[in-house]
Amino acid sequence: MVPGFATKLSPSFKLVSLYFLTAIVSLIAAVLMMIVDYGGLRGHHFSPVVLAVTHLTILGWIALTIFGAIFQLISIIMKVKLHSELLAYIQYFFHIAGMILLVTSFYLFEFGTMMVVGGSMLMFAIILFLINLGITLGKGEKEI
Predict the structure, then answer these.
(1) How many CA atoms lie within 13 A of 81 on its CB side?
(2) Residue 99 falls within a domain, yes or no?
(3) How sure is the predictor about 142, in pLDDT bands with cuts at 50, 70 and 90?
(4) What's the count of helices (H) and strands (E) in the chain, helices before strands?
């Protein structure tokens, strides 16, 4: 890597790779879920397997990839350091815990406390992300 402005401001490799590696694991888990329980994919679109695989793919693979990419690219685009890596780790914890609870509740077709807690944890993770991103963007270079 060429040393430069963006590398000095970039978040730690550990943070970004945590998001990317978990995204890959989520994709593999979704594919394995489709292989193991393929019979559940042939029914109605509101079946437990379809709901679980869809949410695991979107919340695990796609969302975590986007979060990791934004954390990495914000320093290059805005020429500013991420406000708080600790907040990004806390967000990660809430996102993963919420995703596991939500996907499990869909797979078990239990629309009760587990789903509400999982969804709430995911919303809290997104709020943490928006706070971290908003403060970071507020510190960026101002072009006139």
Answers:
(1) 9
(2) yes
(3) low
(4) 6, 0
